């Protein structure tokens, strides 16, 4: 108000201040921090706070202004006492928060060398201020660094072993419950706690004979372990322990050193151990009985060399493997290319022989991804051109892709590829076959694989024949000896049909009793482990590169499975986002940062 009054040429005799807020009036009488300003008598607020034009027509505050402007100034009570109801709302709820921040010198540095030098400079500053005639201005010498080390050790020991130090200062033995009882500690000439031990008469330096005692979980101890680990060029536990024991004796030193080495980022990048998780439950497509090849997995094996024509010209070939997810029956096709068009032709041949599948499972190969798009176009065109297209549209094939770079998600067809290669190496070897010969060979391998038992064989001659995928295809193993004709039997056709149906049902009953029980146990990945979290820093495993060149990434999204366990993650690299399984990620011992 003084600055406004001084700006006028004529000095005002009296000054009256108007306000639209009673809170301001109370403000002038009390601490301003107690009140929040909010006025309801400001006529400018009618337009700025969004009144409609029809509301402004008869709005008195907009056209006339506040009521107190029409009254005499002398009649107004500028300072009014607050009513009792208002005073009840003036109470405050005060919450006192205490932030536990350790401001000691030991927690300010992540390097033992830097901590030691800063401590030495602090002691030098104290010395120079007390003894100006003996000021030291040159670089730090060994005595100053040694005295700084002793000062830090003294702080740590006073914090961790105060009771033991008090007893030793009185020449009393430590308590029977003390962690230092087996070390027979004593105080040296400068008051530091050292190991008494049994090496008093050994011809070794005093630091190794009576090392300084340190706790295993103190921040100063961790700095010493990091220093010795780096000083020994990321040496192992034994190497680091040998260096530490020249001056210090850390309680439970092996565990402390091993724990710190496991958290060394450089060592973790060299070891690069990928994460694992408990094996998931079997999907419903594996344990619910359905007709063979209703739900199939598909993959390629190869390449194999094929002879083209009568000359020596050669071309690459591949084996397409279809495997039933329920019965493990296999269907093999030889192709000369892995394009989407070639796979569409293979799929048509498969459907013509084995029936229309409802679901196809594969990895994220470019061939299958392209075929999925072509397949969708194919079904749409057929639905428009043919009468059967409506049925195909209702029963169209659903394509399911596994996460990228995760072959273990398709372990069923990967095992089938291994079985095909097993027979192919032993029959064909290095021989180069023609396309026709290879088709014949793969058909024979298919018959062998569909005749292999899917349940354990029994040595009892009275037991039934082992259950094979062929039993679900033709009622018997594909390589079994044909049985004699039953056309001359006097049974009716209906009786034969019932017997056949009973046989098929018996196969499924054995499948449920013998085969499913074998799938109950987990062969590996038995324990549930802590999952990675969003924000964790990981390495992307690449078998083609050494571990130090694996790509660095950060987890940005987790894809949880049906059992509530996360085995697939989306990670962010310098080149973009990637979707990878857990077994392709190697976590680094770095805490995630909060944005």
UniProtKB/TrEMBL annotation:
Domain Integrase catalytic: 288-477
One GO biological process term: DNA integration
InterPro entries associated with the record: DUF5641 (IPR040676), Integrase_cat-core (IPR001584), Integrase_H2C2 (IPR041588)
Cited Pfam families: DUF5641, Integrase_H2C2
PROSITE patterns hit by this protein: INTEGRASE
Protein name: Integrase catalytic domain-containing protein
